[in-house]
């Protein structure tokens, strides 16, 4: 492994442009001198300084006090037969670093004492997930950022504006561009508006592995909701088993469709944010690409003695950090304050989200859900729900109207939808 590290260093000194193509960190090298050399090379790259043997040796001499760096670097260059093999040797260095890390994780687990298993398990899961990721340099130049931006634009153009995961509602997808990786989405509403039904609609829309954190409803109730919505079987009759003959084939068909979906469910009552993070990491390690949470105020914070708004803030920040860590979208439901029911216009606003202003700050996207028929039996908007995108870091805000099929507890597109765009954040 020492030889492979010397080959990489020598290749870069002979061909400095390789630094743009080799994604190693100082910790990937096994010896302290090699770590110091690579750290110096990264500093030169980020500061646009020349990567040349004498210049690098001078920088190392000033930072370490050692005077033999010219000989060390000259030896690496002399031992490098061909810079063209630099990237291959870099892979060997990376493999060696991962092997050492696995051995470190195993050693840590072997020394687990009573009462430490949860912390050690979290540590091992987090480190194993990091090992599974390809090395990435967080610092970059403007050219790299522009290249990524153009790639995303081309992808969105080819998919008719969709960058993220589809949510199953065409006009909402058009507004959001789908659910974006690493973003936190919040859906707020009063009880009986259909928050959970909307979440389930979102969860089964993409044909990818997803996870559902259900802190309120057990798995069998969620499964019945999915069967009702997918098979268009009357929810009350399904719940009471008061079924007609023609509905049984619909149930069978719905179960068959749903069984092929890659959906994982955690229905632990009132899990802690640490439980959610732990489960999210485990799911992501096994391929889950989006997580749906029902709902924020039912997730326990670590500091249970803090004021409620601080606890909710801790949960929201934990979900946002998890979305970034796993690089997947997280869609979470939230309660809305009952104060909205004292207003003449009972449509929720972002400021009505219960218990925390942190939701407004941390969420990348905030939506509210409203059905006028809940408050007005004679409403001309019966069978219609309003999804108000009140915050959208990636595009427009405004109302999206969708169909509500109460018998099946199901949302769907309106044939002739009305979207009122209010501009951009």
What would you say this structure looks like, in words?
The protein is an alpha/beta fold and 425 residues long. It folds into two domains: 2-139, DNAb Helicase, Chain A (Orthogonal Bundle), CATH 1.10.860; 162-424, P-loop containing nucleotide triphosphate hydrolases (Rossmann fold). The chain is 46% helix and 14% strand. The chain contains 15 helices and ten strands. It has helices at residues 2-14, 32-46, 53-64, 69-79, 86-110, 117-132, 142-158, 170-176, 195-204, 219-231, 235-240, 247-259, 273-285, 308-326, 358-362; strands at 184-189, 210-214, 263-266, 291-294, 330-335, 365-370, 384-392, 396-405, 410-412, 419-424. Strands 1, 2, 3, 4, 5, 6, 7, 8, 9 and 10 form a ten-stranded mixed beta sheet that branches. Strand 7 and strand 8 form a beta hairpin. Helix 13 packs parallel to helix 14. The protein is elongated and about 85 Å long. The chain starts with a helix and ends with a strand.
Task: Spell out the blueprint of helices and strands.
Layout: H1 2-14, H2 32-46, H3 53-64, H4 69-79, H5 86-110, H6 117-132, H7 142-158, H8 170-176, E1 184-189, H9 195-204, E2 210-214, H10 219-231, H11 235-240, H12 247-259, E3 263-266, H13 273-285, E4 291-294, H14 308-326, E5 330-335, H15 358-362, E6 365-370, E7 384-392, E8 396-405, E9 410-412, E10 419-424
Parallel strand pairs: 1-5, 1-6, 2-3, 2-4, 4-5
Antiparallel strand pairs: 6-7, 7-8, 8-9, 8-10
């Amino acid at each position: 492994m020492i030889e492979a590290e010397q080959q990489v260093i020598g290749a870069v000194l002979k061909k400095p442009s390789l630094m743009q193509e080799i994604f190693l960190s100082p910790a990937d090298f096994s010896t302290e001198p090699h770590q110091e050399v690579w750290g110096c090379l990264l500093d030169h790259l980020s500061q646009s300084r020349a990567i040349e043997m004498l210049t690098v040796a001078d920088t190392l001499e000033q930072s370490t006090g050692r005077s033999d760096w010219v000989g060390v670097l000259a030896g690496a260059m002399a031992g490098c037969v061909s810079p063209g093999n630099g990237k291959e040797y870099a892979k060997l260095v990376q493999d060696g670093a991962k092997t050492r890390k696995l051995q470190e994780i195993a050693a840590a687990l072997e020394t687990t004492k009573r009462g430490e298993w949860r912390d050690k398990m979290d540590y091992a899961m987090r480190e194993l997930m990091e090992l599974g990721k390809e090395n990435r340099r967080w610092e970059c130049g403007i050219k790299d950022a522009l290249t990524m931006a153009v790639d995303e634009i081309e992808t969105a153009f080819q998919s008719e504006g969709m960058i993220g995961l589809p949510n199953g509602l065409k006009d909402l997808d058009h507004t959001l561009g789908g659910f974006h990786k690493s973003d936190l989405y919040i859906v707020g509403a009063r009880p009986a508006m259909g928050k959970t039904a909307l979440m389930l609609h979102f969860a089964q829309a993409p044909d990818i592995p997803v996870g559902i954190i259900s802190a309120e409803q057990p798995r069998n109730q969620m499964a019945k909701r999915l069967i009702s919505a997918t098979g268009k079987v009357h929810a009350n009759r399904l719940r009471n088993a008061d079924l007609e003959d023609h509905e049984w084939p619909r149930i069978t068909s719905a179960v068959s469709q749903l069984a092929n979906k890659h959906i994982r469910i955690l229905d632990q009552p009132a899990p802690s944010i640490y439980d959610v993070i732990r489960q999210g990491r485990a799911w992501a390690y096994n391929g889950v690409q989006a997580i749906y949470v029902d709902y924020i105020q039912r997730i326990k914070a670590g500091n249970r003695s803090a004021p409620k708004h601080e606890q909710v803030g801790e949960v929201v920040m934990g979900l946002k950090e998890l979305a970034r860590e796993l690089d997947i979208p997280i869609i979470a439901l939230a309660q809305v304050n009952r104060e909205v029911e004292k207003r003449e216009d009972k449509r929720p606003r972002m400021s009505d989200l219960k218990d925390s202003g942190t939701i407004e700050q941390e969420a990348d996207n905030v939506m509210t859900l409203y059905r006028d028929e809940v408050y007005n039996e004679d409403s001309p908007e019966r069978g219609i729900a309003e999804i108000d995108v009140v915050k959208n870091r990636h595009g427009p805000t405004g109302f999206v109207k969708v169909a509500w099929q109460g018998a099946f507890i199901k949302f769907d597109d309106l044939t002739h939808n009305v979207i009122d765009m209010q501009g951009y954040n």
